[in-house]
Amino acid sequence: MVKAQEMCNGDDDYEIGVFIHLKILRFISEMLCKASACFLNVSSWPGDCQRYPLCSLTTQWRHLKVSSSIVAGSLKKEFCMDPKFKSLLDCVKWDDKGLVVAIAQNVDTGAVLMQGFANREALASTISSKKATFYSRSRSSLWTKGESSRNFIDVFDIFLDCDRDSIIYLGKPHGPACHTGAETCYYTSIFDIIGDSQANKEQLASTTLYALENTISKRKHEIEMEVNLKPSWTRKLLLDDELLCSKIREEADELARTLLQGEDSSRTVSEMGDLLYHAMVLLRAKGVRFEEVLEVLRKRFSLSGIEEKNNRS
User: Fold this and answer.
1) What is the model's pTM?
2) What is the CATH number of the domain that holds 157?
3) Which phi and psi angles does 68 have, rounded to 5°?
């Protein structure tokens, strides 16, 4: 269960003062918003939200004109909800306390970063600021991830689940998501506990690709620490640049031949696996994380291949 621990560091009196100050600012902002009875201009709308049980909220709200700014760690909002904006919020199945589960997920790696709760204001604030914002049940107030640590999560999209009772903030973290300093809050394996193993902050809940990257990183660390273990093909590659590069060329050629020679698709899958593995060893040898590659690909989504190549020069 995630609780707001962003204000656990520093002087207590100062933090209490900041906390009260933020509550006053938010209260004044809400009152001014209601009093002005202003509305956002909506150029178009995708239709009744009941037609979108599984949907991207930011896609549906992309035509709403919202202004916001982050000043000294506090979120100042200057917007009022259009009736259609309000109807979308009404589509969310808030529980009896007005909350839904809010999960933050890394847009590039797919890693689940943390889990908290959001109310209507937290969700609206996240859309406005593009920073992951949650509702603290212990303090009964909003909090933005990174308020004191500066490890914000930049939100690129927001998704509702099929029952509309939980949301995902799909975003890019500025640093560790967990207050312990771990990359994510999920590093305790239930199977490890059953096997009497201790939780390891380096052993994250990784998908296959990142589990492979972690293994390659361990082999690199073993070389640096001069640990004498049983023979390892990965360590051998890391110790021989010429061998590594020759294997990448070899696997790339074999992958290409599965197409040119009309080989079975299972062969293509196998050769792609070999090429990807060897390429990831090269990335580790160069000190590059696979996440950096995925980030480059994400940023190219809006560009044609021709435009992207022209931008390189």
Assistant:
1) 0.66
2) 3.10.20.810
3) -160, 165
